[in-house]
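Lab meeting, item 3. Inverse folding demo.
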């Protein structure tokens, strides 16, 4: 399949064929290098200052540490409320879809009964 794509690539537009030839020769190595770069970037980003403040541990400032702990607790409570609200909304959407499907089914059955003259299957 790769060879066919390469031949078609050369026939249509020679750089496409050349790119396909390069992929056939170095494709696995390119994928491995790309994976290595992604892993390196993730590990670099994980060590950067993007981590939450709780991962830093104590700062030595008691007032700030207490404030941070209270804020993190408040944020966690907000997260729980949002998760509960999202679950409730998902349930609402599921019920809404069920009602809509039921209405469509009843409409279909009515039209089917009208076409067949009221006979039941």
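The presenter then showed the designed sequence:
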């Amino acid at each position: 399949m790769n060879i066919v794509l390469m031949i078609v690539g050369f026939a249509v537009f020679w750089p496409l064929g050349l790119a396909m030839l390069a992929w056939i020769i170095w494709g696995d190595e390119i994928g491995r290098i790309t994976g290595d770069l992604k892993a390196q970037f993730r590990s670099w980003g994980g060590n950067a200052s993007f981590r939450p403040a709780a991962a830093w541990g104590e700062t030595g400032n008691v007032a700030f540490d207490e404030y941070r702990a209270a804020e993190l607790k408040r944020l966690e409570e907000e997260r729980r409320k949002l998760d509960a609200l999202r679950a409730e909304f998902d349930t609402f959407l599921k019920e809404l879809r069920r009602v809509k499907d039921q209405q469509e089914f009843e409409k279909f059955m009515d039209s089917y009964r009208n076409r067949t003259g009221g006979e039941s299957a």
